[in-house]
Design a protein that fits this description.
- The complex is a heterotrimer.
- Chain A is built from 20 helices and 21 strands.
- Chain A is an alpha/beta fold.
- Chain A folds into three domains: 172 residues, Dimethylsulfoxide Reductase, domain 2, CATH 3.40.228; 95 residues, no CATH class; 112 residues, Barwin-like endoglucanases, CATH 2.40.40.
- In chain A, α3 links the parallel β2 and β3.
- Chain A starts with 12 loop residues before the first strand and ends with a strand.
- In chain A, 61% of the residues are buried.
- Among the domains of chain B are: 75 residues, Ubiquitin-like (UB roll), CATH 3.10.20.740; 58 residues, ADC-like domains (N-terminal domain of TfIIb); 70 residues, no CATH class.
- Chain B is an alpha+beta fold.
- Helices cover 25% and strands 18% of the residues of chain B.
- Chain C is globular.
- By secondary structure, chain C is of the alpha+beta class.
- Classes of the chains: A alpha/beta, B alpha+beta, C alpha+beta.
- The interface between A and B is large, with 149 and 112 residues.
Chain lengths: 527, 354, 309
């Protein structure tokens, strides 16, 4: 997030796209509702009529995968009506002309054809966003999990720069991260092309710095493979995989392919708190401690580094992940020893400019700190890009509408989209074992529109066989007006309904994110 | 900013204009009891336990809704005030179960705290008592309306913070009760609109709303609270893990930087996995297609040997590493270091895109 | 010393011969509730809450009064045991005020602990209840016999001091109560207010008057100190609330000696923020006295003064 969570409540215009905020991020949902009570206008872009869409002044119920067209359409109106922030564009950005040229053809009427959103609504939302004093855009995976995911984000960035709604309190671009420490994992260099704080591995000076700090002669220079590429290469150039706390068999697209990939390895080691669907395929499984059993830090979606405190001893012989990594490294001839996670943090902070001023001691005394926090006396950073972008000038990326990779056809006439439920988390490894959440929400459903249900002769609760070109699952029907005809929706959070057997592993060529939000399926009634 | 100066229990207090008498008193450490007041919620001035004496006022005004004015003189513990508070407590206790013996809130209950403070016994008034069935048909929250004192904090937190408008007062007089629409239960979510965030439980001053799974697991004074960060979504809410005898028995609100006291259903009620019998408790090695329990020494040696062999034969780049968005920064940093410096591979990634 | 080996809840336990089942089980980490059991006065077997199931025994046995024997097979939480304990708790609660709301022992009461543990919200029995007046006649000790569970820990600890033996059971059946001789008040009795009876009372029947209304048990932090007034070395607890010592309460007598009031008052004067006004019995009545008189230092102080001149 470029802003802080608390700033959302002070925005006077909120545009959300591809976020089921009140279910996926309920406590941020609280902030959005607070903004509404304060008189803010809310526009929600989502193919589904989610709870937050019902709260919105404008629900822009687009056809799945048409975000760029809509966002360009908003820009088109703003430029044509002269509502754009000329001063900001002039001083803080570049490549505006090329962008202006591309969006010229995205007239509200043209966009209505592509997206299904009425031209008048597009105009009203464009005006509302442009004229707002503080305008915040929230998005999650509904925007990014498309074959054009990166371009979708460019389109969002273009819109904010066009209006100068960035680099200010309560104005900015705010991706809401879906996992407790996905921000931190990225910051910490759990990425194939970067060390901590996005320092490229391809840069020789960076390699030299880390090699010296880590006491090795050299470090590999070529950026590595992303998750999907690792699985594609499994059994080919990848011979062994070490997985810590992830369950790709349920979370990654085209599950059959993932299972096959893991099975074709020479060696697979999985470190987890449960024997997940992935761990079952391992040669060695190492028992890890849960968050309640260890000290450390998580970095949240607003870049806030916060303490995780040990409350109980590890269960059985389980060990905290860092201890296990140290043991393996040491056994491989690289002695690794730390007295505490605080010590690991200190080593990391020395190598990581944006975390350099943070320490466990400070977090204990002051509470969470938001990076960038370069020095021990720096208070942390509430919002980013004030006065200047990280790269200098903000760059307009002129992007065109790109349809999803797999569109419905005669054989597979429905669009399947996937997401989350309020009561569950990711692949459900934890939330199906709480004694409470899974009791209340024990089984998964496929959301289907009344019209489609009627056409197929489906009643609520009927078991359906849903198939794509890649696989089949069975799931009960839930007839609802949350989805429009032609669209069906379910979550990927139930081992009984491994929906990722169906999803399309085609990826955005830049971010390598899979297109979970659109794939073509057919539906048959089983009973 | 304009300020006003008033005298509370003989102490001169200067506060910004618009401050309530309650806030002014609290600012100088003077205790005034409250039931319905919450600094983050609207102020109905309903429970009247916070009454104070202000000479010249028509009666005892509620401190939580009375604005401090210039020259005001306030007595927070005069005879009249104490008598009013005692009567207030006696009336509440007249229709309250004498159940501290096993009540989950024993030790963290405002009614109990004030009854003790003012030396009020339960038996002053006798009369009809409610006998509502206890609502426990959902796995998260138990509602015992026999213990409700109608302070309305749950109603307001649901309206004003959570924004789900699940609860409100229904019926009149002695029959007044807090309930979801149509007097249904919370679990009837199509009507109630409840999302089980439990924020009503967090503000309940008595034993009317409790966390179901915590009942019978430990008394308030036996529990150690450890403030930590939620392991679910990326918002970074903070809460207290409640620990007794080395077990996590529940989650209660802390004052988080991001979330204050407010949480969602997963954060507040999704901790049960910690002690689930499915937890892995020992290393496992697959032999002939079956997992066999192993010692740490054995498992670590095998992993080191296998990864070492692959590195030796094919080079470090033949090893892929999946780090984790669930693990801590420290662990991700170490995995990054391990992959690159020890294994010699840059093929380290995690589920950021999923 | 000979050892015996027995099985408790399926676990083999070896203990020295003569060990009670209670000590054997708790030593192995198992929980057994007790009301009348006093480690300093073991083997009384009065309250029966500590019953366990011993394979082959005629009935459930009181673990505090049963010696561990070789080959014994014991269950400490079997359904029969739980049922017996629940019934005992219900019977006790049938004649116990439900005023935890304001009871001074709330949070440090065994009856409450066990009712909570075994899920007894209310007694299943209806019947007559005592309505004894509260005995405030002693300035240091408050006795509320309505809350007494007749465990006799006070009787036994008092009897350990030869020339005291102030308390014993009086009357029969439902009317049984703990009383000084001739059923007088404590103030009229030979009681010297050492407080060892209060220190062992498992419920709210005996409480320290100095703590009445001063705070809930869970609000206090206790710090044990050793009395330095004589060489006996009795233990006292400093009761902290909000960083201040509110009262000093007796914890345990020193070897071979009783606790004494003088020692406690001395500690009170030394540590408590606002110490009580000391009271001593003169002509069968408690009267306020000066600190030097309470601590028996009048002569010494006078002499010091004299020498100073």
């Amino acid at each position: 997030m470029t802003n802080s969570i608390a700033e959302i409540a002070d925005a006077d215009f909120i545009l959300t796209t591809g976020t089921n905020t009140t279910e996926g991020h309920p406590v941020i949902g609280i902030q959005v509702k607070k903004a509404l009570r304060n008189g803010a206008t809310l526009a929600v872009i989502d193919p589904r009529r989610t709870e937050i869409a019902e709260l919105a002044h404008y629900h822009l119920q687009i056809k799945s995968g048409t975000d760029i067209a809509l966002l360009n359409g908003l820009a088109n109106v703003i430029i044509n009506e002269g509502l754009w922030n000329k001063e900001f564009v002039q001083e803080r950005t570049e490549d505006f002309e090329a962008f202006k040229e591309v969006v010229a053809k995205y007239t509200p009427e043209y966009v209505e054809e592509i997206t299904g959103v009425p031209a008048d609504t597009i105009k009203e939302v464009a005006r509302g966003y442009a004229k707002a004093k503080k305008a915040s855009i929230l998005y999650t995976m509904g925007l990014t999990q498309h074959v054009c995911g990166t371009h979708n984000v460019f389109a969002v960035a273009n819109l904010t720069m066009l209006c100068g709604h960035i680099g200010k309190e309560s104005s900015g671009v705010n991706p809401l991260r879906g996992q407790n420490n996905v921000q931190g994992a990225c910051d910490m260099g759990a990425l194939p092309a970067f060390y901590t704080a996005y320092q490229p591995v391809a840069n020789e000076a960076n390699r030299a710095k880390f090699a010296a700090a880590w006491g090795v002669e050299e470090l590999p220079s070529k950026p590595g493979l992303t998750v999907g590429e690792i699985f594609d290469q499994a059994g080919k150039t990848i011979k062994a995989i070490y997985i810590m706390g992830e369950n790709p068999v349920l979370s990654d697209p085209d599950a059959n392919h993932v299972i096959h990939a893991l099975e074709s390895l020479d060696f697979l080691v999985v470190q987890d708190i449960f024997l997940t669907e992935t761990a079952q395929l391992a040669d060695v499984v190492l028992p890890a401690a849960s968050f309640a059993e260890k000290d450390g830090t998580f970095s949240n979606t607003e870049r806030r580094v916060q303490l995780v405190r040990k409350a109980i001893e590890p269960i059985g012989q389980a060990k905290p992940d860092c201890e296990i990594i140290c043991l393996i490294a040491t056994a491989m001839g690289y002695p690794m020893r730390y007295n505490s996670p605080a010590e690991i943090f200190d080593e990391m902070a020395k190598l990581t400019p944006s975390y350099a001023g943070i320490s466990h001691k400070r977090l204990e005394q002051e509470g969470g700190l938001q990076w960038p926090c370069p020095t021990p006396d720096h208070p942390g950073t509430k919002f980013l890009h004030a006065g200047k972008f990280a790269r200098g000038l903000g760059k307009f990326h002129a992007v065109e509408h790109i349809p999803p990779a797999e569109m419905p056809d005669e054989e597979y006439p429905f669009v399947l989209s996937t997401g989350r439920r309020r009561y569950h988390y990711h692949t459900g490894t934890m939330t199906h074992r709480t004694g409470a959440l899974e009791v209340f929400y024990p089984t998964e459903f496929l959301e289907i529109s009344c019209e489609d249900a009627e056409k197929l002769g489906i009643c609520d609760g009927d078991i359906l066989r849903v198939s794509s070109r890649r696989g089949t699952v069975e799931v009960a029907a839930k007839i609802t007006d949350r989805v429009v005809p032609g669209l069906v929706f379910t979550s990927f959070q139930y081992p009984d309904v491994p929906i990722n057997k169906l999803t399309n592993p085609v990826r955005c060529p830049i971010a390598k994110i899979p297109e979970y939000k659109v794939c073509a399926v057919k539906i048959e009634k089983v009973s | 900013m304009t300020t006003v100066t008033l005298t509370i229990d003989g102490i001169q207090v200067t506060v910004p204009k618009g401050t309530t008498v309650l806030e002014a008193a609290e600012s100088v450490g003077i205790f005034i009891p409250t039931f319905c007041h919450d600094p983050e919620l609207s102020k109905p001035g309903a429970c009247r336990i916070c009454v104070v004496e202000i000479p010249g006022a028509r009666n005892l005004p509620a401190a939580c809704v009375t604005e401090a004015t210039e020259g005001m003189v306030v007595y927070t513990a005069s005879e009249a005030v104490i008598e009013a508070r005692k009567t207030n407590l006696e009336l509440l206790l007249a229709n309250h179960p004498e159940d501290c013996l096993t009540c989950h809130k024993n030790g963290d209950c405002r009614l109990q705290e004030y009854a003790y403070f003012y030396g009020v016994k339960a038996e002053a008034f006798s009369g009809e008592k409610h006998d509502y069935p206890v609502e426990e048909d959902n796995p998260f929250i138990v509602r015992d309306m026999n213990k409700c004192i109608l302070c309305g904090k749950c109603v307001r937190v649901c309206q004003e913070i959570q924004g789900n408008n699940v609860l409100d007062f229904a019926f009149r007089g002695f029959s007044a009760v807090v309930t979801p629409a149509m007097n249904t239960t919370l679990s009837d979510t199509d009507i109630s609109n409840c999302v089980f965030c439990g924020n009503c439980v967090a503000v309940c001053p008595v034993g009317a709303l409790t966390e179901k799974a915590m009942i019978g697991k430990g008394r308030q004074w036996e529990v150690k609270k450890v403030k930590t960060t939620c392991p679910y979504c990326g918002v970074g809410c903070q809460f207290n893990l409640n620990v007794k005898d080395g077990r996590v028995i529940g989650v209660t609100s802390a004052d988080g930087d991001v979330n204050g006291r407010f949480l969602c259903v997963k954060g507040r009620f999704g901790y049960g996995f910690i002690h689930h019998p499915d937890r892995l408790t020992t290393p496992l090695i697959k032999k002939d297609g079956k997992f066999v329990e192993a010692s740490w020494d054995e498992a670590i040696a095998l992993v080191a040997e296998k990864l070492g062999a692959v590195k030796e034969q094919y080079g470090g780049e033949a090893i892929g590493v999946l780090s984790s968005a669930r693990c801590t920064n420290e662990e991700n940093y170490l995995m990054n270091k391990f992959a690159r410096a020890v294994l010699g591979t840059n093929s380290i990634d995690h589920c950021a895109r999923l | 010393m000979a050892n015996v080996t027995l099985t408790i809840n399926g676990v083999q336990v070896t203990v020295p011969a003569g060990t009670s089942l209670l000590d054997a089980a708790t030593g192995a980490g198992f929980f057994i509730p007790t009301l009348c059991h006093d480690p300093a006065n073991p083997g009384y077997g009065g309250c029966r809450i500590c019953v366990v199931e011993v394979k082959g025994a005629r009935a459930l046995v009181a673990s505090c009064a049963t010696e561990a024997a070789n080959g014994m097979v014991v269950e400490t939480e079997s359904p029969a045991v739980q049922e017996a304990r629940k019934t005992i708790i219900e019977l006790l609660l049938a004649n116990h005020p439900t005023d935890c709301l304001t009871c001074e022992k709330n949070g440090d009461c065994r009856l409450q602990d066990y009712a909570y543990r075994y899920g007894i919200r209310k007694s299943g029995f209806e019947g007559e209840r005592h309505s004894y007046p509260i005995d405030n006649s002693n300035p240091y000790i408050t006795r509320d016999l309505n809350k007494c569970v007749l465990c006799a820990r006070c009787v036994r600890t008092c009897a350990q001091v030869d020339d005291r033996q102030v308390l014993d059971f009086a009357y029969r059946g439902f009317n049984t109560k703990v009383a000084p001789a001739m059923d007088t008040s404590l103030g009229e009795s030979d009681c010297v207010s050492c407080g060892r009876c209060v220190a062992v009372c498992p419920v709210g029947a005996l409480t320290f008057t100095s703590l009445t209304g001063k705070g809930r048990t869970y609000e206090f932090r206790k710090e044990t100190v050793t009395c330095s007034f004589c060489e006996a070395g009795c233990k006292f607890d400093l009761n902290y609330k909000g960083g201040k010592v509110i009262a000093v309460t007796p914890n345990a007598p020193g070897e071979g000696r009783p606790l004494c009031l003088k020692g406690r008052l001395g500690m009170e004067l030394r540590y408590v923020d606002k110490p009580v006004t000391p009271m001593l019995k003169k002509d069968d009545k408690y009267v306020e006295v000066s600190w030097p008189e309470a601590l028996g230092l009048e002569d010494v102080l006078a002499r010091i003064k004299e020498l100073g001149e």
